[in-house]
Amino acid sequence: MADELLRYRSEFPILERTTYLISNSLGAMPRAVYDAMKGYADLWASRGVRAWEERWWMLAAEVGDEIGVLMNAPKGSVSTHQNVTTCQAVVASCFDFSGKRNKIVYTDMNFPSVMYFWEAQRALGARVHMVKTDDGIRVPTERLLDAIDETTLLVPVSHVIFRSAYINDAEAIIEKAHKVGAHVVLDIFQSLGTVPVDVRALNADFACGGVLKWLCGGPGVGYLYVRPDLGKKLEPKFTGWFAHRNPFGFEAGPIRYSDPPFRFMNGTSHIPALEAARPGLKIIAGVGIPRIREKSKKQTGRLIQLADQHGWRVNTPREPEKRGGTVSIDMPDSQEVCRELLKREILVDWRPKAGVRMSPHFYNTDDELETAIAAVEEILKERTVTAR
Ligand SMILES: Cc1ncc(COP(=O)(O)O)c(C=O)c1O
After folding, report:
1. How far apart are CA 201 and CA 318, in angstroms?
2. Ligand 1, residues 26, 87, 111: which to mutate, most atoms within 8 A of Cβ?
3. How much is the pLDDT for 2?
4. How far is the CA of 112 from the centre of ligand 1 (A)?
5. CA distances (Å), origin 102, targets 20, 95, 233, 243
6. Atom 6, ligand 1: which residue's CA is nearest?
7. CB 52 near ligand 1, within 6 Å
8. What 3-state class would DSSP assign to 385?
9. d(CA 211, CA 214)
10. Spatial contact of 131 and 167, defined as CB atoms under 8 Å apart
């Protein structure tokens, strides 16, 4: 059966020259970004400071809504930021750690930047509890749920684990957190764009991520969803004039908060990055995440099958329902193999305790998977010959 999604390939120039299996790290750039960037420069050049009023001021909210649609977030509930770490800082600044409820529960499978941020909050009184993983692939859900107790304030966890692509049980984590009065900060960076996310169905408190991976939006745009009832009352201490109810009043003294999404923003928005993000968001919305997911399950399944045929270790769950868009394959000398693949224009990456991460997206052909695996086989053969 013809793969309908391949008609989008022509939108991404790099696919003509490389085997692009690295969308877990940086999604391919849509051709339309050239025009978006030219439009940005033309507007700045021709309209000067008037660009703020005519387009730029509202851009942060508009792009937030474009991202929000993909996770079923209500309009106005998604603010944009530079990255996920900043989103964590905004959330943390809405709470304080001086009371009895000051425990932060996370897992050793979180993305390190998110760990570093929360560990640093110990200096402000946070008690930080890290739930350890046994096999480096799956998060032990029961152990995580047990750690969330009546003193827990926040649970910052990844939806899909960057190392293994394991899909955390977000529903169970949010349910347990709510039962004891805690809030969950769900990092959906490795899910949104390849695995369906519905923040309303999950009753998520906060969800954050960035657009540069599965959303093909380039670096510089992170996003933060805040559940509307929380959005009305939370007061971020990491704040600034963009969050003011009357920013052009330039009032002295404490802030008077505006409504979301600007309430959760702070200083001047990252306009060029917001402009660059739009073409990718438009394409992803047009393709539709359910179709992306269906294809991803098949292609990641095929990669696992091929790795098994060669007897290579797979550090990704085998059940399609429990894995995201990446397959981590730890073949012998995997770091060296990764370097060789890059030289051959097969774009993948390598992570410690994971191996080579291969991440097909909607624009990849089945043949590209075979090409990548055949190249690994060849590299390993050549290495054996040289070692003799
Ligand atoms: C799950 C996850 N969270 C966060 C990040 C990055 O955080 P930041 O946007 O702060 O660089 C990554 C990868 O880059 C990731 O995979």
Report:
1. 26
2. 111
3. 87
4. 8
5. 44, 9, 19, 26
6. 84
7. no
8. helix
9. 7
10. no
Q: CA dist 19 to 91, 288, 327, 359, 378, Å?
A: 38, 23, 16, 11, 16
Interatomic CA distance for residues 91 and 81, integer angstroms? 12
Residues 6+ apart with CB under 8 A from 355: 313, 315, 328, 329, 330, 331, 334
What does each C-alpha distance from 376 to 117, 301, 310, 351 come to in angstroms?
37, 18, 10, 16
Rounded Cα gap, residues 302 and 293, in angstroms? 14
Residue 346: φ, ψ to 5°:
-105, 105
Place of tokens 């539709």: 288
User: What are the beta bridge partners of residue 152?
Assistant: 103
Token digits for 35? 């025009």
Q: Which atom of ligand 1 is nearest to the CA of 87?
A: 10
Predicted confidence at residue 386, as pLDDT, reads 72
The radius of gyration of the chain from alpha carbons, rounded to an integer in Å, stands at 22
pLDDT at position 383 is 81
Query: Rounded CA gap, 188 and 72, in Å?
Result: 13
Report yes or no: 187 and 209 within 8 Å, Cβ to Cβ: yes
DSSP H helices in 104-189: 112-120, 141-147, 170-180
Closest ligand 1 atom to Cα of 222: 9
pLDDT block averages, 10 residues each, the chain of length 388:
93 98 98 98 98 97 98 98 98 97 97 97 98 94 98 98 96 98 98 98 98 98 98 98 96 97 97 98 98 98 97 97 97 96 97 94 98 97 77
What are the structure tokens assigned to 334, written together?
């995997």
162 lines ligand 1 (CB under 6 A): yes
| C-alpha dist (Å) from residue 209 to 85, 212, 331 | 9, 9, 30
- The pLDDT, as a whole number, for residue 384 is 77
